[in-house]
Amino acid sequence: MSTRANWYLFDYGMVISEAPTEQDWAALSEAAGLPLTNPDGPYWQYRVDYDAGRIGVAEYWQRVVGREISDGLREELHALDLRAWSNLNSDTLDVLEAIDSSGVKMALLSNMPTEMADFFQHSSVWAKYFSRLFFSGHLGLVKPEPEIYQHVLQELGASGDQVVFIDDRQENLDAAAKLGIRTVLHHPGVELASELGL
Question: Keywords assigned by UniProt (predicted)?
Fold first, then answer.
């Protein structure tokens, strides 16, 4: 892939961050009082509404647990959730550093709940690399809805062919590609620096 781009647009989960560990899932499941690792279970069942900002952190965890919960338990679950998605991919951080040094601009587009986005954008080590941060919870839109990509392109003042989008989900890349955005699928084992020609 040619590295000539006005913008590199990165996803967060499973690109900048790694997957939650078994220990992360165990801690969340213990606090919630039910197993949360099932991909068809309540953690993921309500995640799209949470990511889209249609429900907040309190309602999300009440739905996941299936009952009213105390403020203390909500705060514990939220803190454990933040920790679970804080395992950073050191190889991706090296790529961010290399792109930053080259002078090419970077933006982030992530399906992420409002409360989590607010935390990461103010306290993470990676946010400094990005000129723009776009989070689904703030926008009320989620990938792969075409409107979220249209919004990002408009905000960046860029056409699709001026943007390279890196994401771990093919459906998100396919939706972006329909707008002319160049795409790179990232998953474990992919040498991202090589994929981007760095």
Answer: Hydrolase
The total number of residues shown for the chain amounts to: 198
Instruction: Give the Cα separation of 133 and 152 in Å (integer).
Output: 10
C-alpha–C-alpha distance, residues 198 and 145, integer Å:
30
* Whether residue 92 sits in one domain with residue 80: no
93 and 51 belong to one structural domain: no
Tens digit of each residue's pLDDT (9 = 90 or more) over 119-167 = 999 999 999 999 999 999 999 999 999 999 999 999 999 999 999 999 9
pTM of the model: 0.95
Question: Does the residue 1 lie in any domain?
Answer: no
* Domain enclosing residue 157, as ranges: 7-18+88-195
Contact 5, 162 (CB under 8 A): yes
- Confidence bin at 169 (pLDDT 50/70/90): very high
The per-residue DSSP string of 19-33 comes to PPPHHHHHHHHHHHT
Give a yes or no: residue 113 inside a domain.
yes
| Band of pLDDT at residue 4, cut at 50, 70 and 90 | low
Q: What's the Cα-to-Cα distance from 195 to each of 30, 91, 97, 164, 166, rounded to whole Å?
A: 39, 13, 16, 11, 10
